[in-house]
Every structure is written in structure tokens, then in C-alpha cells.
Amino acid sequence: MSRPQRQRWSRTSPARRKVLALAAAILALPGKASAADARLVLLERHDCPWCRRWLREVGEASWNRSDLGRRAPLRRVDIAQGLPDDLAFLKNWRFTPTFVLVDGGREIGRIIGYQGDWSFWQQAEALLARLPEERTKGGP
Predict the structure, then answer these.
(1) What is the model's pTM?
(2) Structure-model confidence comparison of residues 38 and 93, the more confident one
């Protein structure tokens, strides 16, 4: 008995377009916002030494395991690839790393650059304090 042939998921395949359209429709459904709506977006470049230093000293795993990271999980974006469509509203950034707190499709604030882990954690805590009241309590 032969195995069924797997569908190719090229960028233009009809199946992929249908799945992406369904996912977009689900994400667009109105509903109660949750604490997971907030994200800390890291705008980085692969050749940025300060980005690599942040990854070494703080890192994605440490951030996401922290209290702050649970309220706003990290999303890494390589700006060499361009901004994704859902982040097209981010304007006037020039330096990497830039950390942007995004909630509900809008920018709450940002941290430009990285000066060390101690300074970063302080700035991140002040940034997440700007989230709406229900976000800071860890739930809707």
C-alpha cells in the first residue's frame, strides 16, 4: 500500500491560501482581549552585534519565562526581511535592536537599543506598566 502524496505548501498553492484566509478570518473575529494579545516585538538584524548581545544576556527563552514575558511574549522580526503586514503601522524606527510593545494592533511604547541586561529589565518593566489595567493583572 502506498502512502498518500503530501500536498505541496508553496506560497501560491490554493490549499495554503485557504488556510491563511481561514486563520486571518479567525483572528479578525471580535472577542474579549486577553493578556496574550500584548507582544514585545524585537526588530533585529542578523548582523547586529547589540542584538546578539541581547540574545546572549537576556535571550528569548529567559524573556518568555519571566513575569514580563508571560504578559507580553517576544516576537522576533528580522528587518532585513521587511516588516510583516500586521506590523506595517510601526514607523520611525532606525536602530536595532528596537523593542516595541504592541497591544491590540497598536504601539504602546518602545525601547531603542540595548545597554545591558540590568538597564533592559528596568526599561521593560516601565514599558509593560503602560499596558491597560487588566493586562497588568495577568488576565482579562
Answers:
(1) 0.69
(2) 38
